[in-house]
Amino acid sequence: MIFIMEATRFLTLDDVAPLARGCAVLGTGGGGDVRSAALAAGRAIREYGEVPLVGLDDLDDGDLILPLGSIGAPTVGHEMIHGDDEPELIRREAERLFGRAPAAVMPSEIGGGNGVHPVAWAARLGLPLLDADGMGRAFPEVQMVSMFVAGLPPTPIVMADVVGNVTTVRPVDGLWAERIARAVCVAAGSSALMADYILPVGEARGAVIEGTVGLALALGRAVERTAAPLAALAAELGAKILVNGKITDLRRETTGGFARGTVTITGVGEDRDRALTLEIQNENLVATEDGRVLATVPDLIGIVDTQTASAVQTEGLRYGQRVSVLAWPCDPLWRTPRGIATAGPRAFGYDLDYIPLEDIT
């Protein structure tokens, strides 16, 4: 049962642009294209009406949450856009599996287009959007969600693609969820829509990261109302600016359902004679300078346009771009032993121990 009170916040057309700006920053390079997602969200709001933004306390413990997000390589999702039918196909299958209709949509991840598209999906399904997600950012793999860190089983995973195929997976754990879902995604052309960790509100308490839709909105608003957007964004995030420079080297390829690569930013102005290297797997994972680690996952590393503070996603990186690299702390959940094991540098194959950003000098 959904309690939508008069004081409930509604997401309007005016919210779409700042939400997209904030989600792009929280995507740390990944999460999908925010431009197409913003167009879809705006169209859905105009067609179906404003979307209620609710918290867990606005729902009953037994209400079913439907986390939705794209899985695949952002470079593919930029061109192969989701159709209108995929959310409805997933909703129908979830209702069949659980014996009741979902009560709210939740972004699987707040980063990138995966933080914005759920507005369109919620509007189209006639459901509220939960002010929470499973990451507080974007991560590339299925098990890299707060629900896995909290020890919850993945439950049946439901996937749909642009052709109309619907696949239900019952993995034994989150790691198998990644293996099987990734194989299905690659078969679908490295892009699909997925619902995993479909769960009741009572199980979501303490297992999802709350307030992240509101955070993305706040970041977008902070940037749009100032003459010094980079400083404003860094202040709102509590972020360090690692370097101001331009992209002088870029290697990027789509393989195994991921966009992987390395980007080098050579400093300009006060940062001249410096060169920072970022390792990428959909998202920016590790920042180094002359072999010295400056920041690593699960802390967040973002590339933004130096003048506008607009986030530059993995698929938008170009040689010669003037950019700034920011880093800021992750949600405390990711700094637990299980969180670090799930999404720390060693989880991505780097022979590095995680050091909190604020402890790196």
Task: Give a structural overview.
The protein has helices at 13-26, 34-48, 74-77, 86-98, 113-125, 146-149, 174-187, 201-204, 212-224, 229-237, 337-343, and strands spanning 9-11, 51-54, 64-72, 104-107, 129-130, 132-133, 157-160, 166-169, 191-195, 199-200, 209-210, 240-255, 258-267, 275-281, 283-289, 292-296, 300-305, 322-328. With 361 residues, the chain is of the alpha+beta class. It has two domains: 9-213, CV3147-like fold; 228-359, CV3147-like, CATH 2.40.390. The strands form four sheets. A seven-stranded antiparallel β-sheet has the order 16-15-14-13-12-18-17. Strands 3, 4, 7, 8, 9 and 10 form a six-stranded mixed β-sheet that branches. The longest helix is centred in the N-terminal third of the chain and has 15 residues, at 34-48. Residues 174-357 form the S-Me-THD-like C-terminal domain. This is DUF917 domain-containing protein. Pfam families: S-Me-THD_C, S-Me-THD_N. Residues 15-169 form the S-Me-THD N-terminal domain.
What is the topological layout?
Layout: E1 9-11, H1 13-26, H2 34-48, E2 51-54, E3 64-72, H3 74-77, H4 86-98, E4 104-107, H5 113-125, E5 129-130, E6 132-133, H6 146-149, E7 157-160, E8 166-169, H7 174-187, E9 191-195, E10 199-200, H8 201-204, E11 209-210, H9 212-224, H10 229-237, E12 240-255, E13 258-267, E14 275-281, E15 283-289, E16 292-296, E17 300-305, E18 322-328, H11 337-343
Parallel strand pairs: 2-5, 3-4
Antiparallel strand pairs: 1-2, 3-9, 3-10, 6-11, 7-8, 7-9, 12-13, 12-18, 13-14, 14-15, 15-16, 17-18
Helix pairs in contact: 1-2, 1-5, 1-9, 2-5, 9-10
